[in-house]
Design goal:
Helix content is about 60%, strand content about 0%. The chain has about 60 residues and is mainly alpha-helical. The chain has one domain. The longest helix has 19 residues. It starts with 15 loop residues before the first helix and ends with a helix.
Length: about 60
């Protein structure tokens, strides 16, 4: 899997430490979802849109 992960900035493969951090975050997120602690997608999108709106107005 790490061979397929690319950095957004330089199209270079991610270093193993970055891949491990991402895997840890995914593992934590999956456990949270399994416990019913996941966030609603619509809520997240609306919050992001609000942040973008505020950034444009700043």
């Amino acid at each position: 899997m790490s061979d397929n992960l690319k950095s957004n900035d330089e199209n270079e493969p991610l270093d193993p430490e970055s891949v491990n951090r991402i895997r840890e975050k995914v593992t934590i997120a999956r456990a949270e979802i399994a416990r019913g602690e996941g966030l609603d997608g619509e809520t997240i999108v609306n919050e992001l849109l609000e942040r973008f709106r505020q950034a444009r107005e700043a």
